[in-house]
UniProtKB/TrEMBL annotation:
Protein name: Molybdopterin-dependent oxidoreductase
Cofactor(s) essential for the protein: [4Fe-4S] cluster; Mo-bis(molybdopterin guanine dinucleotide)
Domain of life from the UniProt record: Bacteria
Entry keywords, A to Z: 4Fe-4S, Iron, Iron-sulfur, Metal-binding, Molybdenum, Nitrate assimilation, Oxidoreductase
Residue ranges constituting the 4Fe-4S Mo/W bis-MGD-type domain according to the UniProt record: 2-58
Short name of any one Pfam family annotated for the protein: Molybdop_Fe4S4
InterPro entries assigned: Asp_de-COase-like_dom_sf (IPR009010), BFD-like_2Fe2S-bd_dom (IPR007419), BFD-like_2Fe2S-bd_dom_sf (IPR041854), CT_Nitrate-R-NapA-like (IPR041957), MoPterin_dinucl-bd_dom (IPR006657), Mopterin_OxRdtase (IPR006656), Mopterin_OxRdtase_4Fe-4S_dom (IPR006963), MopterinOxRdtase_cofactor_BS (IPR027467)
Organism: Sinorhizobium numidicum
């Protein structure tokens, strides 16, 4: 019998409800849950493609020790023994956990309990350090607690939405769609986007401020001064509910308008227009994400923003407030359980003896950690210098995502004992594990996550656990029992863990701590199974309450007031001839982090199939780079080679590269190898968006493009990048030496059986050379080579893997790299839901479809998840502008 299960999307912090359907034949399909309050039925391109990421290809399905298959008991015994041994010989701080905002709350709770309560060290940190920690630090300075006051509805109720350091259209797409829909129905609503790049999000902006890197503190300080001098301050609110306004104002006044303009890179008119809009609009929401958090001034940026909301009393009311958008599906849940090294459980402070004592008594813990542990960057330093001797990494891929990634990799190589719990066998991190533990993935695991608006939703399993994979919490609890802590880790289900977590949140709370879900403290399995999404807080003995924090003007500092924090604009980096560019890093629409899941989907991989760097046309000219050339980017930490995308959306002097590619998908594209381990002094969050680099054209002797039914392997090339395609794989290639036998090269790279002979094609004039291998009617692999970046139509070439080639002329057409008139090249994929390419869209525009809706009617593009609507609009504008010239 087919069954439908309500669960939650495992990607971004919007936390959309998903209905997963498993058919009788085991086929899975997903759709948005119309009743979930985060998405009301919508899903973005990544959410819509979830079913394509569930196959077991590449999965880690049984424990391994030193590369050999092992039993669970043996592996768990070894982990417990090595951790105990290190603790006995070198103390509790010689071991560490590095965990993730992609763990479920229940997993996270057990990890934190084991480390902070029973091992007695606070050396547990998480990839949320790279993600949310500046927001956490900023909230705690301002509010006395890590509280996100608002809710999604506020973006729809606001008259002005300021998005700073957020590429909402690509990174929180469903929230972006809610915003876009609200703006469409109320066109008087204004959107301001503050981002050095002109992102797809800037598409709906009434004002795009292309701010200089890290200009945000100066900008919001300037705004605070403007609000003060223009009389927009809510004096009653400031005096009744806050402290420190005068100091914040004094610090903010350090720059005059000229100074502000220099620090922000914005014209005075732009500054005045933005300030005036903010001043005159009461209902303002300021959303921020990694352009704010991932900075050496990240915490100050957060407080500069909050200062402006406190000064105007625009917080905790409908349509108003500062709003930190969390990245990962359970970044918020991780904060609730205290997964950061400087927090305790249930939003309690590790530095407060009262809180330590409460947690100790609640857990019956022998040794609650008495001081903060090492934050991620410092933790890997301690691994490198031998202070940490046993490390357990869970649900994160630090060899790709940590700054100074090559040094992180060297640290893991040198570490005496590394345990990795993951769903995949081969990642850049698993290759350094002494013990590999197979975890359950989405669809198999069971627990809760909390989204950006504090809404707790269930992730429910709808697939059986494959082979020996097991829940992360179970692995932790089993190790804890083997370390001698059986009583405290006797949990039999995620429901029991959730109940304990809820009970701790309400323990001796009485409204003193913001995080309280005590109402669920005695939840049983049945109630947990049908738990509906709810927002916290939900204290015991109160009716369920949805809503905002701070509506009553009460905060969590001891005096009940919020604090203004005086912040000063950081000094801009001086021009450096050796490292003339600022590299900004981030995300693309259809990939998730290190691609371990989205890399499995051909549709998602078709949007952007290769690691790239965006560069302004004037910079490209200066360094002699043309569109589609390869570029070598270097920093004092490392080097990458990526494809050039020349675009005026990028500001001169700035480069942008995505963080996703890694050694499994490209030869040398781990962007974090370039990022130095510079961190914010308060939060310890790395400055991943402002990296001093140099860039130069990477001249290859021969360029290649290939399609292959088999996964390309051991590619002998100076540059390669592979991506999943519908009926196989595609590869971008470059070679610097002479290659005398391309046929053999192909046989080995694409695993071509001996009996299959190639058809060759050489164009002597252009120097281009092509080889195609057919097995009967089926194209097995094709390689296109050229002295210049290969111009063959990519999506056409990829589609040839899926179609039969009955007659010889069709096979020669493939070798010649020419789409026939009957099969025009659709071009690079824009709409991944319906696989519609850019050439099809431009053809429709030429045919008179001049709006996103018209293109949608003709091609269906943009009519499902809507994530590509801004790109379609951009293509229409570009075509119409070109036609008008
Ligand atoms: N498609 C996709 N979506 C995702 C993810 C993914 O991997 N793929 N990951 C999820 C996660 S974990 C996270 S944390 C979020 C991140 O979501 P976002 O923070 O929205 O994404 P980023 O691309 O990291 O960065 C946002 C923007 O900050 C800008 N920026 C850089 N420097 C500055 C600056 O100094 N000031 C300002 N104002 N802006 C600046 C960048 O140009 C970039 O456009 O996305 C989540 N959603
Ligand atoms: N330069 C640069 N670097 C960045 C960023 C940036 O913007 N620029 N952003 C940073 C941010 S915000 C983030 S959040 C990080 C993300 O970086 P990572 O956390 O390293 O990214 P993921 O690829 O999501 O890693 C998750 C890992 O867990 C595995 N996994 C998936 N599900 C499960 C599960 O249920 N259990 C277990 N045990 N494993 C599982 C996956 O296969 C994968 O190996 O990157 C950070 N690094
Ligand atoms: S916006 Fe997309 S990625 Fe984020 S939770 Fe919703 S469906 Fe998933
Ligand atoms: Mo993140």
């Amino acid at each position: 019998m087919a069954c439908e299960v309500k669960t939650t999307c495992p990607y971004c912090g919007v936390g959309c409800g998903v209905i997963a359907r498993v058919d009788d034949d085991g086929a899975v399909s997903v759709k948005g849950d119309p009743e979930h309050p985060a998405n009301f039925g919508r899903l973005c391109s990544k959410g819509s493609a979830l079913a394509e990421t569930l196959d077991l290809d590449g999965r880690l399905l049984h424990p391994e020790i030193g590369g050999r298959r092992a039993g669970w008991n043996e592996a768990l015994e070894l982990v417990a023994e090595r951790f105990l041994q290190s603790i006995a010989e070198h103390g509790p701080d010689s071991v560490a956990f590095y965990v993730s905002g992609q763990l479920l709350t229940e997993d996270y709770y057990v990890a934190n309990k084991l480390m902070k309560g029973f091992i007695g060290s606070a050396n547990i940190d998480t990839n949320s350090r790279l993600c949310m920690s500046s927001s956490v630090a900023g909230h705690r300075r301002a509010f006395g607690s890590d509280t996100v006051p608002g809710m999604y509805e506020d973006l729809e109720l606001a008259d002005l939405v300021v998005l700073t350091g957020s590429n909402l259209a690509w990174c929180h797409p469903v929230l972006y769609q809610r915003l876009a829909a609200a703006k469409a129905s109320r066109p008087e609503m204004k959107v301001v986007v503050i981002d050095p790049r002109q992102t797809m999000t800037a598409d709906i902006a009434d004002m795009h401020l292309a701010i200089a890197p890290d200009g945000d503190v100066a900008l919001f300080n300037g705004l605070l001064v403007h609000l003060t001098t223009s009389g927009a301050i809510d004096q009653n609110y400031v005096s009744a509910h806050t402290t420190g306004f005068a100091e914040a104002f004094a610090a903010a006044s350090a720059l005059n308008l000229d100074g502000l303009s220099a620090a922000t890179g914005l014209a005075q008119k732009q500054l005045r227009d933005f300030f005036r809009l903010f001043e005159t609009t009461e209902k303002v929401v300021t959303c921020y994400s990694q352009g704010v958090n991932q900075s050496s001034a990240g915490t100050d940026k957060v407080n500069a923003i909050i200062n402006c909301h406190l000064a105007t009393g625009r917080i905790g009311r409908p349509g108003m407030g500062p709003f930190s958008l969390t990245g990962q599906p359970n970044a918020m849940g991780g904060r609730e359980v205290g997964g950061l090294a400087n927090m305790l459980a249930a939003h309690m402070d590790i530095e407060k003896s009262l809180h330590r004592d409460q947690v100790r008594r609640f857990w019956g813990a022998p040794a609650v950690a008495s001081k903060p542990g090492l934050k991620a960057v410092d933790m890997f330093r301690a691994v490198a210098d031998g202070r940490i001797k046993a490390l357990w990494i869970m649900a994160t891929n630090p060899v790709v995502s940590m700054p100074d990634a090559d040094v992180v990799e060297a640290a893991l190589k040198a570490c005496p004992f590394v345990v990795v719990s993951d769903i995949l066998r081969d990642t850049d991190t698993t290759r350094h594990a002494h013990v590999l533990l197979p975890s359950l993935g989405w669809g198999e695991k069971d627990g809760t996550v909390t989204n950006s608006e504090r809404r707790i939703s269930r992730q429910r399993a709808f697939l059986d656990a494959p082979e020996e994979a097991s829940a992360d919490w179970w692995q932790l609890a089993e190790v804890a029992r083997r370390m001698g802590f059986s009583e405290a880790f006797g949990h039999a289900s995620s429901a029991e863990i959730f109940a304990e977590h809820a009970a701790l949140s309400g323990f001796e709370n009485d409204g003193r701590r913001d995080f309280d879900i005590g109402a669920h403290a005695s939840i049983d399995r049945a109630a947990y199974d049908c738990l509906e999404p709810f927002q916290w807080p939900q204290p015991k003995e109160t009716a369920p309450q949805e809503g905002r924090f701070f509506a009553d003007g009460r905060f969590y500092h001891p005096d009940g007031r919020a604090c203004f924090v005086p912040v000063q604009a950081p000094k801009a980096r001086l021009a450096d001839d050796a490292l003339p560019f600022t590299l900004n890093t981030g995300r693309v629409r259809d990939h998730w982090h290190t691609m371990t899941r989205t890399g499995k989907s051909a549709r998602l991989s078709a949007h952007i199939a290769e690691p790239f760097v965006e560069i302004h046309p004037s910079d490209a000219q200066t360094i002699g780079v043309a569109d589609a050339d390869l570029v070598r980017i270097e920093s004092p930490c490392g080097t990458v080679i990526v494809r050039a995308l020349v675009t005026a959306r990028q500001a001169p002097g700035n480069l942008f590269a995505a963080m996703h590619w890694n050694d499994q998908f490209a030869s040398k594209a781990r962007i974090d190898a370039l990022v130095p381990p510079i961190t914010d002094p308060f939060s310890g969050q790395p400055a991943s968006k402002n990296v001093a680099v140099k860039a130069a054209r990477f001249a290859a002797r021969t360029y290649g493009f290939a399609v292959s039914t088999a996964k390309p392997r051991k590619l002998q090339a100076v540059y390669w990048a592979i991506a999943k395609a519908e009926a196989g794989w595609r590869a971008e290639l470059a070679f610097d030496g002479a290659q005398d036998n391309w046929i053999d090269w192909c046989r080995q790279a694409f695993s071509i059986p001996g009996g299959i002979e190639p058809i060759g094609y050489t164009d002597r004039q252009s120097g281009e050379f092509r080889l195609a291998f057919f097995e009967g009617e089926r194209l097995f692999a094709a390689l296109f080579l050229s002295p210049r970046p290969v111009a063959v139509a990519r999506s056409w070439a990829v589609s040839q893997l899926a179609v039969p080639h009955a007659d010889l002329s069709k096979r020669f057409a493939v070798a010649a790299g020419r789409p026939g008139a009957d099969k025009p090249d659709p071009g690079a994929t824009v709409c991944s839901c319906f696989s519609v390419g850019v050439n099809q869209i431009t053809a429709a525009i030429r045919d008179g479809c001049h709006s996103v809706e018209a293109v949608g009617q003709r091609l269906s593009a943009g009519t499902n998840c809507g994530s590509c609507r801004s790109e379609i609009r951009g293509i229409i504008n570009g075509c119409l502008a070109a036609a008008a010239e």
